[in-house]
């Protein structure tokens, strides 16, 4: 990997990080839990670049980081439990999954096609300073390649992702060192999706006992949410031709003609661009009035694997 600069988080470096983020680039960012791989959460393209950099084989939803509660409330619908938990534990290692607001401006990729969004206010001055300076929410999963150890020092990020980030801000070792606790508040009973920096007992003291995802059903674990991900229309994969009552999700230069509506994920055949459009285009084709969606083949490499994983789930019998 080539070396992205590791910068002490002085005001000049924070301004530089914020500018890089506004330019759609990735930045390694200290938080109190682990280092984050941050991108402008409002940019489809920047969020797609996170998945490409981490080499994730599938799209799982990302946590969106904010600098204050009001910003979170613009992105998701808070209920009284969320109010209480935010008042008690924010800023801090608690992530809340809440119903996403249609007008929040956050990329659909952050939700991986779900109608919920995970939000958190980190308890790290550098993280919040960068979010404020960037002037927008930041999507930031752990700054490690998929399947590798989470990074708790700036050098870990530079070593594994140095060629993929514009710079790494060095906030020293992460004080918590484990990921945030993730609690799903979209249902009547709060669901503990991931244990982490805030203990379950602490949450229960505020909102009452939590549920746990049932073993086997794993309904809410990453990548396991088939039915939520699926469009309403039936989806046909690997299409070489298209019927007039079908809507076409195309990729690349040679595309069948005659569909009721065609959206091309990337006429140039760029898989990062394709990923950035995937959920938006599926939604639009789903609303096109067609009887079904046909999709042309997508190469099984790079982000193409994650795109195909998602399309296969969406096409699976329900
Ligand atoms: P990471 O970004 O690597 O810290 O992981 C984020 C965690 O939050 C994963 O376990 C995700 O599955 C979970 N998560 C994020 N957004 C959602 C969501 N909308 N619904 C359910 N789980 C989520
Ligand atoms: Mg992670």
Structure description:
By secondary structure, the protein is an alpha/beta fold. Helix content is 31%, strand content 16%. It contains ten helices and 14 strands. The chain has helices at 11-22, 44-54, 69-75, 80-89, 125-134, 154-161, 200-207, 226-229, 271-286, 303-315; strands at 6-7, 27-29, 36-40, 63-65, 94-99, 116-120, 138-139, 167-169, 181-184, 191-194, 235-236, 246-250, 261-264, 292-295. The protein has a ten-stranded mixed β-sheet, sandwiched between helices. Strand 2 (27-29) and strand 3 (36-40) form a beta hairpin. The radius of gyration is 20 Å and the shape is globular. It starts with 5 loop residues before the first strand and ends with a helix. Residues 218-224 have low confidence and may be disordered. The structure holds adenosine monophosphate (AMP) and magnesium ion (MG).
Layout of helices and strands:
Blueprint: E1 6-7, H1 11-22, E2 27-29, E3 36-40, H2 44-54, E4 63-65, H3 69-75, H4 80-89, E5 94-99, E6 116-120, H5 125-134, E7 138-139, H6 154-161, E8 167-169, E9 181-184, E10 191-194, H7 200-207, H8 226-229, E11 235-236, E12 246-250, E13 261-264, H9 271-286, E14 292-295, H10 303-315
Parallel strand pairs: 1-8, 2-8, 4-6, 5-9, 11-14, 12-13, 12-14
Antiparallel strand pairs: 2-3, 3-7, 4-7, 5-6, 9-10
Bound molecules: adenosine monophosphate and magnesium ion.
């Amino acid at each position: 990997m080539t070396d992205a600069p590791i910068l002490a988080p002085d005001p000049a470096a924070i301004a530089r990080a914020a500018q890089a983020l506004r330019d759609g680039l990735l930045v390694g960012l200290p938080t109190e839990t682990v280092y984050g791989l941050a991108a402008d959460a409002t940019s489809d393209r920047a969020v797609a670049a996170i998945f490409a950099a981490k080499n994730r084989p599938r799209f799982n939803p990302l946590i969106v980081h904010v600098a204050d509660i009001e910003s979170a409330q613009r992105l998701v619908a808070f209920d009284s439990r969320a109010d209480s938990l935010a008042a008690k534990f924010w800023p801090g290692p608690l992530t809340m999954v809440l119903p996403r607001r249609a007008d929040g401006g956050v990329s659909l990729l952050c939700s991986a096609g779900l109608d919920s969004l995970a939000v958190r206010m980190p308890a790290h001055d550098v993280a919040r300073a960068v979010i404020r300076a960037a002037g927008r929410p930041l999507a930031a999963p752990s700054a490690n390649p998929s399947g590798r150890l989470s990074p708790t020092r700036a050098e870990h990020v530079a070593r594994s992702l140095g060629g993929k980030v514009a710079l790494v801000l060095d906030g020293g070792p992460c004080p918590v060192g484990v990921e945030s606790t993730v609690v799903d508040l979209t249902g009547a009973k709060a669901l503990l999706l991931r244990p982490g920096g805030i203990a379950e007992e602490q949450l229960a003291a505020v909102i009452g006992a939590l549920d746990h995802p049932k073993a086997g059903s794993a309904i809410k674990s990453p990548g396991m949410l088939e039915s939520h991900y699926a469009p309403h229309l039936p989806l046909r994969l690997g299409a070489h031709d298209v019927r007039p009552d079908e809507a076409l999700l195309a990729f690349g230069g040679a595309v069948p003609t005659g569909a009721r509506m065609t959206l091309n994920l990337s006429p140039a055949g760029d898989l990062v661009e394709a990923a950035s459009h995937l959920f938006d285009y599926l939604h639009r084709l789903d609303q096109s009035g067609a009887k079904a969606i046909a999709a042309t083949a997508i190469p099984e490499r790079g982000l193409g694997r994650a795109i195909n994983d998602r399309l296969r789930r969406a096409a699976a019998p329900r």
